[in-house]
Amino acid sequence: FFFFQAEDGIRDFCLSRGLGDVYKRQALLSAEFRNNMNKVSRWLCEAYLAGVSDLKVGLISRSDAKDSKKHSLIGVESLSRKNIEQTIGFKMNEGWAYLKYLIEYLRGQEDGEYALVKPSYRQTIRIYKVNKDKEEEQN
Fold it and tell me: How far, in Å, CA of 139 to CA of 119, rounded?
């Protein structure tokens, strides 16, 4: 199960699954997938490696707008991995190519610890070498 917090307009769970409700949920899921591509890509990789072809996505909403710990489940969608891949333009072959490039790049660097940082606003990953001497001085 993977969860997305529902936005206003889809907070109330309704047992009638009319066409408008279905379109609203699909639009919400598509928007959430695009806004959280890194997270969804990770889920797709995990599903691929586990041999899973279908994923269940839960839509949750805060029970009280001021309480960040209490949520209500307002719906569950079953989606195929391939459908999600198409929605966000994810290609597993490209993922393997990126991983291969990253491994080759890091093998060419001097021994040490590196931090991979992905800015939330960009489709890039930055690689920083961790300097242990400065880290120990700061502690």
Answer: 26
* Token reading at 57: 């996505």
CA-wise closest residue to 53 among 28, 23, 85: 85
Task: Inform me whether the pLDDT recorded for 87 exceeds 80.
Answer: yes
Q: Which residue type, as a one-letter code, is found at position 40?
A: V
The residues that bridge with 127 in the sheet, in sequence order, are 116
What does the alpha-carbon distance between residue 74 and residue 80 come to, in Å, rounded to a whole number? 20
61 phi and psi angles, rounded to 5 deg: -140, 150
pLDDT at 15 over 50: no
Q: Is the pTM of this model over 0.85?
A: no
Q: Are 78 and 25 in contact (CB under 8 A)?
A: no
CA angle 37, 77, 74 (to 5 degrees): 100
Integer Cα distance of 18 and 9 in angstroms: 15
Note the pLDDT of residue 9.
42
